[in-house]
Amino acid sequence: MSGRVEGKVALVTGAARGQGRSHAVRLAEEGADIIAVDLLEDIETAPYPMATKTDLEETVRQVEALGRRIIATQADVRDLGQLKTAVDQGVADLGGLHVVVAQAGILTMGLDTPQAFLDVVQVNLVGVINTVTAAAPHLESGASMILTGSTAALLSGSVDITGAGGLGYAHSKRHVARLGHDLARVYASRRIRVNVVHPTNVDTGMMDNEFMYKAFRPDLDAPTREEMIPSLASKSPMDMPWLAPSDVSEAVLYFASDASRWVTGQQLKLDAGQLLPMTDAGVPA
Ligand SMILES: NC(=O)c1ccc[n+]([C@@H]2O[C@H](COP(=O)([O-])OP(=O)(O)OC[C@H]3O[C@@H](n4cnc5c(N)ncnc54)[C@H](O)[C@@H]3O)[C@@H](O)[C@H]2O)c1
User: Which domain holds residue 253?
Assistant: First the structure.
């Protein structure tokens, strides 16, 4: 099957690399044009680098290689004015907006400072609210918004881990889950859908960095990616260390496409069974 989002325009934040790039390319493969946004600057409290201009250029190259159009802009999801400018320009150039993928996000785990809490909430929660706000005036019946949560939003007890940064991560994601539910209710009468995707670990720059190697292998002095992987897998009932970004893109594509035209307000776990021991028929135990 191809052309599952033919004729649609999709906004993807955090599109320079990782899951955001994967979503942009997968949607383009199925016929969408793309409005891509990324920060392209580091954030002091995040213990790993953000994407670069070269990364965003690579997303542009991959989308254009598929024969689709892409308008790529440097913008910070924390800044509503920057986002509005980027989205308005993209819509003017591409002729509409039908899909919103709020993917940009950071992890400030390990830092126990108020700033680490504030930064992650500003990006992961306020950034999603800003994305919806910038997109909303352009959306019509049939549009679909997909918010990125995390299993951290659904794990009971996850708020008490890894300092103020980890607390902020779980806090922001829990509120993204609630936001998706509330927006789905508000937009249902306009036939605009809102769903939330909750991945477990994904093989992207957010996980594939020296800070995370050490977080998962505190027993080693300078652990490598290969030494982290068994530790990730040991926490999964399917012995699965991390998803590929493309695994998440398939869910995003489903929610973006008309195949899910009556599906809204869902909280989709992409967790390889991670949450099963903590839930009963999908409901927290
Ligand atoms: N990787 C995982 O294990 C995992 C698991 C569950 C959920 N998530 C969620 O996925 C998102 C991270 O995506 P990823 O895994 O591809 O990681 P990533 O770090 O590779 O990609 C995140 C992208 O967002 C951009 N970005 C960061 N702050 C921004 C801002 N203020 N404005 C615009 N762009 C910004 C970065 O430059 C980067 O390109 C987060 O929302 C995170 O909570 C990730």
Answer: 9-206+244-269
**Does residue 3 lie in a domain region?**
no
| List of residues 6+ apart from 41 with CB closer than 8 A | 50, 76
Q: What is the CATH number of the domain that holds 19?
A: 3.40.50.720
Is the Cβ–Cβ distance between 94 and 71 less than 8 Å? yes
Domain count, the chain: 2
Residue of 13, 74, 106 best suited for mutating to test ligand 1, as the one with most atoms within 8 Å of CB:
106
- Which residue's CA is the closest to the ligand 1 atom numbered 12? 105
pTM of the model: 0.97
204 CB near ligand 1 (under 6 Å): yes
Q: What's the 123 CA to ligand 1 centre distance in angstroms?
A: 9
Q: Nearest-CA neighbor of 270 among 30, 11, 246?
A: 246
Examine the domain organization and report whether 212 and 249 are in the same domain.
Answer: no
Which tens digit of pLDDT belongs to each residue from 28-72?
A: 999 999 999 999 999 999 999 999 999 999 999 999 999 999 999
Burial class, 277, CB count within 10 angstroms (exposed 0-12 / middle 13-18 / buried 19+) = exposed
Q: In this structure, are 144 and 222 located in the same domain?
A: no
Assess whether the C-beta atom of 202 lies below 6 angstroms from ligand 1. Answer: yes
Catalytic residues: 169
77-90 average pLDDT score:
98
In-domain check, residue 285: no
3-state secondary structure of 111: coil
**Whole-angstrom Cα Rg for the chain:** 18
Residue nearest to atom 41 of ligand 1 (CA): 105
Tens digits of per-residue pLDDT, 97-115? 999 999 999 999 888 899 9
Q: Do the domain assignments include residue 42?
A: yes
